[in-house]
Amino acid sequence: MKTIKIPYYTSSMDLHIDEKNLKAVMTSRTDGFDPGMGEEQLVEEALKNPIGTPRLCELARGKERVVIVTSDHTRGVPSKITLPILLKEIRSGNPSADITILIATGLHRPTTEDEQRRMFGDEIVDHEKIAVNDAFRDEDFEHVRTLPSGAELWVNRLALHCDLLVTEGFIEPHFFAGFSGGRKGILPGICNAATVNENHSYKAISSPYSVTGVLEHNPIHEDMVCAARSVGVKFILNVALNAEKKIIAAFAGDLEEAHEKGVAFVRDLAQCPSVSGDIVVTSNGGYPLDQNLYQSPKAVSTAEACCRDGGVIIMCASCCDGMGGDHFAKLIVRGTVDEIDEYLSKIPPRETIPEQWCVQIYSRILKKHRVIIVTTFLDHETIRKANMIPASSVDEALEKAYELMGKDAEVVVIPDGVAVLAVKEG
User: Fold this and answer.
1) CB 154 within 8 A of CB 126
2) Is 254 found in the same domain as 295?
């Protein structure tokens, strides 16, 4: 019997599995990567040696209003480390700069003050100017242009009326944008609901290029880059993280050049050949990304690449914050998988419903696989209504999977499904 720790909430769950069933354990090589220096030093070195731009302190000279776009409470950006260093770098070039930290929420709920203190630390919350994007407050946004897809780009006024626009974030594989980081700070980060919805339309999500690890020809990525360039992002700081959410690399400078370097680094460590199994066990890497069901398709889509048709995917997600959005909560229980997908497929891009994309991805996966959700927070009856199977522990889920697939079923384990890029060979 083998014991494998599966990230769950702020800790982990133990999966106990007979070695005769265990076909593979797939992990990202970020966990064993030694950067050779501490987290702060990695960030400082990246800022001293930017890619494709002058140093941020030089860019800040003479700039009165500076906006730093950062991620919200659903992301594990180590802003307690990165923001103080960014602020110091800006002020070393311009001590009198008027700096606003703009939290990029996309369509998520507003980030609370308690969450800000956890993310940024008391010093920043008490002494810096912080604004929280609200995609549903139309008066906060201005029209910029039409994007390549035909979508209208509306962006938060704070970003449009500053003298220097900077973004920070982290890079990991993303289930339809290819990779996170870089341009995503603007779209979806600080755009209005209409822009985000159309960028995430049924048509866009259905593109064969809108998948994990793919940027070239990806229509969602192309709109995102266009949006970030159109609003004049002058500098980015992106980091790569290991399973403990520690910084193992940092990339600073030009919006695209620095992001491309970071993507190449993450791809090299995250990419591995997919291994097919009858049962695939995974997680969203624990908190904060496992805090609701809406975020959970990220790792489920990784498991999809390794699960044989008709197989079972076990997803460990605490869902401590519930479903994750009212629209998602209503759509995911709207009917059978086929009924839901048919309904979504008829929605024009301009009429895209907020959060429908995660329902669409679940529908795609559920047409081929059964999905067991391991949660100790979310009501199990709600899981059943969403056409999935509930369980309270990963061992319970595995027993249910064996009942469906047989006691000799081959099991693939991907402890952190968000960190791994599974690629089919050939």
Assistant:
1) no
2) no
Distance separating alpha carbons of residues 312 and 394, to the nearest angstrom = 13
- Catalytic annotation, residues: 108, 174
Domain of 392: which CATH number? Answer: 3.90.226.30
Pick from 144, 66, 141: nearest CA to 105:
141
Contact 229, 255 (CB under 8 A): yes
**pLDDT tens, residue by residue, 67-107:** 999 999 988 899 999 999 999 999 999 999 999 999 999 99
Pairing of the two strands 233-241 and 164-170 = parallel
32 belongs to a structural domain: no
- Lookup: tokens for 211: 């998948």
Residue among 113, 108, 151, 116 at smallest CA distance from 133: 108
Q: Are 415 and 264 within 8 A, CB to CB?
A: no
Residues 374, 390 share a domain: yes
Encode 276-302 in three state secondary structure.
CEEEEEEECCCCCCCCCHHHCHHHHHH
Q: Is residue 303 domain-shared with residue 235, that is, in the same domain?
A: no
- pTM: predicted TM-score of the whole model, two decimal places: 0.91
Residue 33 lies in a domain: no
Instruction: Say if residues 250 and 46 touch (Cβ distance below 8 Å).
Output: yes
Most distant CA atoms of the chain, gap in Å: 69
The secondary element (H helix, E strand) that includes residue 138 is none
Show the tokens assigned to 18: 């007979």
Domain count, the chain: 2
Write the DSSP assignment of 375-415 as a string of letters. Answer: -SSS-HHHHHHTT-EEESSHHHHHHHHHHHH-TT--EEEES
- Check residue 353 and report its DSSP letter: P
> Would residue 398 count as lying in a domain?
yes
In a domain, 309, yes or no: yes
- Domain residues for 287? 2-26+275-423
Short-list 200, 172, 166, 203, CA closest to 185: 166
Whether residue 158 sits in one domain with residue 181:
yes
Q: Say whether both 88 and 113 belong to one domain.
A: yes
172 and 291 housed in the same domain: no
Nearest to 100 by CA among 160, 187, 50: 160
222-271 pLDDT, tens digit each:
999 999 999 999 999 999 999 888 999 999 999 999 999 999 999 999 99
